[in-house]
TrEMBL record:
This is diphosphomevalonate decarboxylase. Residues 179-314 form the Mvd1 C-terminal domain. The keyword ATP-binding applies. GO terms for cellular component: cytosol. Belongs to the diphosphomevalonate decarboxylase family. Gene3D superfamilies: 3.30.230.10, GHMP kinase, C-terminal domain. Keywords: ATP-binding, Lipid biosynthesis, Lipid metabolism, Lyase, Nucleotide-binding. It is an enzyme of class 4 (lyase). GO terms for biological process: isopentenyl diphosphate biosynthetic process, mevalonate pathway. GO terms for molecular function: ATP binding; diphosphomevalonate decarboxylase activity. Residues 9-161 form the Diphosphomevalonate decarboxylase-like N-terminal domain. Its EC number is 4.1.1.33. Pfam families: MDD_C, MVD-like_N.
Length: 332
């Protein structure tokens, strides 16, 4: 017997960052975080549970993945299989519409889409809140990709796995957009997972980071409620910089920046000084994301073209949460 599930999930960019786990096995974060789901980057995933298979298979963009990558998928699918008390193996096919591992949070859309597709294939009918706790155990940032718009990921209590989940905060259907400046889309040298571990262990700034992220989150939720774009942008930029400063304080120091990242940050500041509100944030990679108003996007893109090539500038609208795909939408 075979049963199939297909799901699309969009990536998300954190405006209040997650950088560190208090429980590595359960992916419980040190602080709550908040993100914006983006329309331009997504993963489509199909899960086929098949009685004839003797082990799980995983294809990424039509390439069969090796033992290590497939093992991660197996462990993730086991969360669902254990609950359903079945052992049926799966063939997983994923298509990434995201430059993989370029700090564009491909693991966020990947595990969110996998959670949605497996939920359908196995017929568990888990709700979105529960699915976000499952997605979390694939990759922390995936917790938030279950929903669209502005999304908060609760840090949760103690070592209880169900209390650390995402909730939708606001659908962001106001004048908001994001432009990604792709500085380098190659694979990053230090994974977020290793980077955050090293930061917690060695950065003397780490406890202040957790305190400041917590108060930034409270202020950001007020800004969203008031639809105050300037306050939203200022907190976003400041929070991202504080995360990177905390990493620089690690031993050995961690930096994901490249010369062109600095060039992009300076250009955005220059654009802002001409009176167009726009703010930067960066993740565990050299690419720079610009939070701006959708209505200013074309103007900002034009100005960025003075420094960067057209293919490096990727504008995005706000994305929706996970969505099951029907057969006719599966064009692979
Ligand atoms: C800088 O979610 O990739 O993008 O949980 O270990 O898989 P793991 O890490 P991951 O880390 C994302 C870190 C970040 C900030 C964020 O998205 O909040």
């Amino acid at each position: 017997m075979k049963s199939t599930g297909r799901c699309r999930a969009h990536t998300n960019i954190a405006l209040i960052k997650y950088w560190g786990k208090r429980n590595e096995e359960l992916f419980l974060p040190m602080n709550s975080s908040l993100s914006l789901t983006l329309d331009a980057f997504f993963t489509d995933t199909e899960v086929v549970l098949d009685d004839n298979l003797t082990s799980d298979e995983f294809y990424l963009d039509d390439t069969k993945q090796g033992v290590e990558e497939t093992q991660k998928i197996t462990e993730f699918l086991n969360l669902f299989r254990n609950l359903a008390k079945i052992e049926t193996k799966a063939c997983v096919k994923s298509y990434n519409h995201v430059p993989t591992a370029a700090g564009l949070a491909s693991s966020a859309s990947a595990f969110s889409a996998l959670a949605g597709a497996m939920n359908q294939a196995i017929g568990l009918n888990l709700d979105l809140k529960t699915l976000s706790t499952f997605a979390r155990q694939g990759s922390g940032s995936a917790t938030r990709s279950v929903y669209g718009g502005f999304v908060e990921w609760f840090m949760g209590n103690d070592d209880e796995t169900t209390s650390s989940h995402a909730i939708p905060v606001d659908d962001a259907s106001w004048d908001i957009g994001m432009i990604v400046i792709a500085v380098n889309t190659g694979r990053k040298k230090l994974s977020s997972r290793v980077g955050m571990k090293q930061t917690i262990k060695t950065s003397p700034f780490y406890s202040s980071w957790v305190e400041t992220a917590t108060s930034d989150l409270t202020k950001m939720k007020e800004a969203i409620k008031k639809q105050d774009f300037i306050q939203l942008g200022e907190i976003t930029e400041s929070n991202g910089m504080k995360m990177h400063a905390t990493m620089l304080g690690a031993f050995p120091p961690i930096s994901y920046w490249e010369p062109d990242s600095v060039k992009a940050i300076q250009k955005v500041k220059e654009i802002r000084e001409t009176g167009i509100p726009c703010y930067v944030t960066m993740d565990a990679g050299p690419n720079v994301k610009v939070l701006c108003k959708q209505s200013d996007m074309l103007k900002i893109e034009q100005l960025l073209l003075e420094e960067f090539k057209e293919e490096q500038i990727i504008p995005s609208k706000i994305g929706e949460g996970i969505r099951l795909l029907n057969r006719s939408e599966w064009n692979y």
